[in-house]
Design goal:
By secondary structure, this protein is an alpha+beta fold. Helices cover 34% and strands 23% of the residues. About 4% of the residues have low confidence.
């Protein structure tokens, strides 16, 4: 992760207005807005999020803000610019850094920050991002899928897909009939850094908003890990408990007598309680 403070020379050269994060592996940008910044101080495009009371920009808006400061690949004298800056090929991120994030539209510039010396406020924001999520038990009567979201600071929240993406839920009944809705829900994915989740390419919801939706689950991630460590067993352990062979376990699964919670290439994972019962 690369971290930059976004500052405005026309306001104060030493005051952070926002932070730009870049994740090289995913080639994704993310912008967090500093506390106390009003819509008149915030840079163009970012100000619309401040006006709505948001602290995080979505991935597309974050990328757009960054790309406005990067020389486009169709620039007429691009080859000369690359040579003058010691670049062998077009590298958008390197060009952004070399230009210091400056552009002709405003007085903003970027200041590199070290990951081990980031502002406390930003460090706290990163702890409020999503660590992981998993599907919970679905509601067959309402066609709703529930998800558990695990945040880095230990919070766990349970949300239905209707709460995640209300606009998509409006058309759910029609989509279910075409068997499209459940397929789309399975495409739920984390953005780089866990700053939000995506459903397909268009819908995105921030971790900031997710923390306000659904219901908080009164468990810690430590509780959850402890449950898995003490209650999830593999095929070999199941065979030991039942005094049988691995082949017997595979046969019980094939006949529907045992129900693995996860099927791997050469192994099953079971809940210990089902094996003991």
């Amino acid at each position: 992760m690369k971290i930059f403070a976004i500052r405005d020379a026309s306001i104060a050269k030493d005051r952070d207005l926002a932070w730009l994060l870049y994740y090289p592996a995913a080639d994704e940008f993310h912008i967090e807005i500093c506390d106390g910044v009003d819509e008149w101080e915030a840079p163009l495009l970012i100000s619309s999020f401040v006006k709505r009371g948001k602290k995080s920009l979505d991935p597309d808006s974050s990328r757009l803000w960054a790309e406005l400061r990067i020389i486009p690949p169709d620039r007429q004298n691009l080859g000369m610019i690359l040579r003058d800056n010691g670049l062998d090929s077009y590298d958008p991120f390197r060009l952004l850094v070399l230009a210091g994030g400056r552009c002709a539209q405003d007085d903003c510039f970027l200041v590199p920050l070290r990951e081990d010396n980031m502002p406390n406020e930003l460090e706290k924001r990163l702890q409020e991002s999503i660590l992981s999520f998993l599907p919970a038990q679905a509601h067959s009567k309402t066609c709703c899928n529930d998800f558990l979201f695990f945040f880095r600071d230990g919070m766990i929240r349970r949300l239905s897909d209707d709460e995640l993406f209300p606009e998509a839920a409006l058309h759910k009944e029609q989509l279910v009939r075409l068997s499209l809705y459940r397929n789309s829900v399975s495409r739920l994915s984390l953005t780089a850094g866990g700053h939000g989740v995506r459903l397909g390419e268009k819908n995105c919801i921030s971790a900031e908003d997710l923390r306000k939706k659904g219901t908080e689950v009164p468990l810690t991630q430590g509780d959850f890990r402890s449950y898995i460590q003490n209650n999830v067993i593999d095929t070999s352990t199941a065979a030991e408990l039942l005094h049988c062979t691995r082949q017997n376990i595979q046969d019980l699964v094939r006949r529907g007598k045992l129900h693995p919670v996860l099927t791997l290439k050469n192994n099953f994972l079971f809940l210990r309680d089902e094996i003991l019962s």
